[in-house]
Amino acid sequence: MAEEAILRFDQVSFEYVHKKPILDEASFVVRKGAKITLMGQNGAGKSTIFGLIKGELQPKHGQVSVTAGATIGAARQMIAQEHLGLTIEDYFATAFDVVPGNLKSRISKVLEAVNLDIPLDRIVGQASGGQQSRLLLAYSLIQDPDILLLDEPTNNLDRQGIDHLVTFLIMYDKTVIVISHDADFLNCFTEGVIYLDIFTHQTELYVGDYYSVVAEIQKRIEREVMQNAQLEKKIQDRKEKVNFFANKGGKMRKLAQKMREETAELEENKVDVRREDKTIRRFEIPAQENIKGDIVNLRKVMVIKNQQPVWCNIDKSLGRQSRLLVTGPNGIGKSNLLRSLVNKSTADNTIAPQVTIGYYSQDFSALDFQQTVIDSLRSILAEGINEQEMRSTAAGFFITGDLMERHIGQLSEGQKGLLSFARLVLMKPGLLILDEPTNHINFRHIPIIAEAINNYQGAIIMVSHMADFVKDIEFSDQLNLGNLLA
């Protein structure tokens, strides 16, 4: 007997701006206990669907139905800015209208479920990126939801963290809907895919593992392209005959009219073929000129061992075209090292004073969320770049039109990532400090970003857990923080 439905979208339409639909009569059903991937291009409306499920958004038309009494838990892509200053215990308390007396016990259980050992008095903002990703998942679990919504849950997780998450999701006996660009991760547990078409604004439900569904969609696209090509040939042939008969008069003119109507019907039968995501334009990050000697000197690094900081001596110097990859497990201190360099908070580690630093932060802390996009771009322009060049650069990262006037806090995480790369191009840095620069980025853009970083002529310090991305960049040195404790 088939499982009962726990979630239903019935001809749901939604728009943020009048006459610019995000969803147009979208319909699908999710069965209790299903593991579903929500798939679609950037801007197609995946996060909007999550908002509708949670009741934060209301449809313009149609109905979103959740089984009576079913609870919903959602793991965001990033911890909210207002929660970063809380202790971990206080952070979990915000999940409840009335804080339960057994809160610590509940926290202990969900932290164990996500394989995270961390003191409850630790400030959330002091946790590493990987630890914050696990906190987000634990936060969504603390109310034991019947429907679990996960938005890019593998961001910042190392291989061990991803493997643990996969095991957890396979064993989780309730409904899970996931948004992710990590195809290998999705294929491990997905039983079906809801495909959201950015052009028709409708949804289609496919059954099968992720790779099988992607292959099925690709075959369908190929069939639709072939069908359209055959129809186009017929249409062109009919049009030529219509033009010929229309000039003959009498019965021939009537035949031409009939053929014109048949041609119009053929035009209507052409299929709206899905167009793949456009990729960002290939780009170059210009390096700051006239820098000589050492750009960065690293003499000490703080490594976290058993929740305690341990200072380790190192001796690394980076000049122009030096590239250092910082590695180690989640929570060992990689992001802390990068932040301390940007903030110049450690006297033992120095950056030459004349060097412009281009910083990509995994939590986008380098961006002012209250600024408009255009003011953010103007604020970092290197000498010699005018307004027209600035707008052209931004357009290459899909930052155009009304996006320019939006506050950065209103952008999606993917748009914040692309804005961060546009800023790096415009500031002409002498040093790139990159903390998980592929987080939130559409996988189609990643080879272009890797090429730009690999061609950059300044110094680079980078943290990344994406092996396929790292292998496309030639590093001159590596700093494994785990090895410093050996």
Low-confidence blocks of residues: none
Integer count of domains: 3
Distance between the termini: 55 Å
The CATH homologous superfamily of the largest domain? P-loop containing nucleotide triphosphate hydrolases
Strand order of the largest sheet: 5-6-7-3-8-9
Largest sheet: 6 strands, mixed
Number of helices: 14
CATH topology of the largest domain: Rossmann fold
Shape: globular
Please characterize this protein's 3D structure:
There is one protein chain. The protein has 486 residues and is α/β, with parallel strands linked by helices. It has three domains: 5-214, Rossmann fold (3-Layer(aba) Sandwich), CATH 3.40.50; 215-269; 296-485, 3-Layer(aba) Sandwich (Rossmann fold). It is 35% helix and 22% strand. The strands form four sheets. A six-stranded mixed β-sheet has the order 5-6-7-3-8-9, with helices on both faces. Helix 7 (210-246) packs antiparallel against helix 8. The radius of gyration is 26 Å and the shape is globular. It starts with a strand and ends in a 6-residue tail after the last strand. The model has no long low-confidence stretch (mean pLDDT 88).
Task: Give me some keywords for this one.
single chain; 486 residues; alpha/beta; Rossmann fold; 3 domains; five-stranded parallel beta sheet; globular
